[in-house]
Amino acid sequence: MLALTLTADLTGITNLGPLDTEDDPYFFTFKVQCTSCREIHPNWVNVNRFESNDVSGSRGDANFVWKCKACKRESTATIRAPANSYQQASPPKRQNIVEFDCRGLEFVEFKADGEWTAKGLESTTVFTGIDLQEGEWFDYDEKAGEEVSIKDVKWEIRRA
Fold first, then answer.
1. pLDDT at 58 (0 to 100)
2. Cβ atoms of 2 and 100 closer than 8 Å
């Protein structure tokens, strides 16, 4: 089991999470390493929880099925549950966003492309279209009358 964790300094917002619905799934983007030969695949790969792929030689399925080009071993990853929202904390604390059951592969690097959402800490404002690729985000909460931000974004992939 691997977990994608996030540590970030949230100001004026909470419940930061990927926009992830069946009609508009979030694609988690990773670099992959084979646990058999330790080869790191040069391209980024996408995994979403609504996609289901058959595992060859098995009756099972997985969200992500991958065959290593170096050793030809087939590996799988399955998202265990919907992504968790990151809650505002002071000081910022590492929190699990999503967990993967990986067989024969490991995710070694995460790229936060895709749309994220959050809610105002002191208001009911919902912020959509949040882009975390730059590692920070700034906006203004009209209802609360203050600037809101996400800074010092740190992603980590850890054993769950």
1. 80
2. yes
